[in-house]
Amino acid sequence: VQLVESGGGLVLPGGSLSLSCAASGFTFMYFDMRWYRQLPGKERELVASINNLGNNKNYADSVKGRFTISRDSVKNMLYLQVKSLKAEDTAVYYCNAPVYNLWGQGTQVTVSS
Question: Fewer CB within 10 Å: N-end or C-end of the chain?
Answer without folding.
Answer: C
